[in-house]
Amino acid sequence: MSGLLEAVRYLTIVPLPGRPAAGGGALGRAAAWFPVVGLALGAALALTDRVTDVLFSPLLAVLLTVTVWKLLTGGIHLDGLADCLDGLVGRDAEHRLAIMRDSRIGAFGAIGLILFLLLEIAAVAELAPALRWRALLAAPVIGRATPALVARLLPVARATGAGAAFRAGLGPAAPALALGAALVAAAAALGVAGIVAWALAALLALALGRFMTHRLGGITGDVLGAGIEAAELVVLLVVAAWARVGR
Q1: Sequence-distant (≥ 6) Cβ neighbours of residue 4 within 8 angstroms
Q2: Coil, strand, or helix at residue 156?
Q3: What SS3 state is found at 219?
Q4: Global pTM?
Q5: pLDDT tens per residue across span 104-161
Q6: 143, 150 contact by CB (below 8 A)
């Protein structure tokens, strides 16, 4: 259970007793638990959606649900997405990594976050209530299964840092366990649409990782976080498109 506690400490703002495990590889060893944390987040979002849908107008309900989503994660993955976007303007790999380490957000990061959140809000709002809570349940699970896959298949950009520590602690079975758990959750919540969303989300996270590897020389913790956000958005878009085509 120590791996689960470590995953909860890192992926959410939920206060837990005790301290994070010593050693940078502890989070990598907890990677198989990431989808379980995602399931808990999804359950909280589904509950939030049901409550806000009763109390507020549809748009305000969606805005509040997405706000809770990002608050529960502490915005950690959005920070990674913004850093990756800012890093794209660098001259070379070293310059890009230096930009990504800067705590300040640049124009690319700010514009990218605004557009990303608008897409996410619009995708959630597009879904009918009976489908929306199931998509909200599945998306965090699928998104959090991707870091193990990306870190296993791609090199790291730096010998130190969150990405290197995560990869160093990653067990050989972690990608299969994480992806398998996400597939079960996706199929149970969304059926065939969930399986398609699971596959496309994993492929997009891996494609993003490969692109950033080309730009940076490898992956970083920011790249893994950006992959989670991208995968979650893909799930919402696939479910929204599936529902529209099936009308």
Answers
A1: 30, 33, 36, 37
A2: strand
A3: strand
A4: 0.94
A5: 899 999 999 999 999 999 999 999 999 999 999 999 999 999 999 999 999 999 888 8
A6: no
**Residue 174: partners with Cβ closer than 8 Å, 6 or more residues away:** 28, 31, 32, 148, 152
Whose structure tokens read 């897409």?
119
Distance in angstroms between the alpha carbons of the first and the last residue of the chain: 44
Residue type, 202: A
Q: Residue 53: which residues within 8 A CB-CB, separation 6 or more?
A: 61, 129
* Inter-residue contact 62 to 204 (CB < 8 Å): no
- 46's CB contacts (< 8 A; 6+ apart) are 133, 134, 136, 137
d(CA 49, CA 20): 31
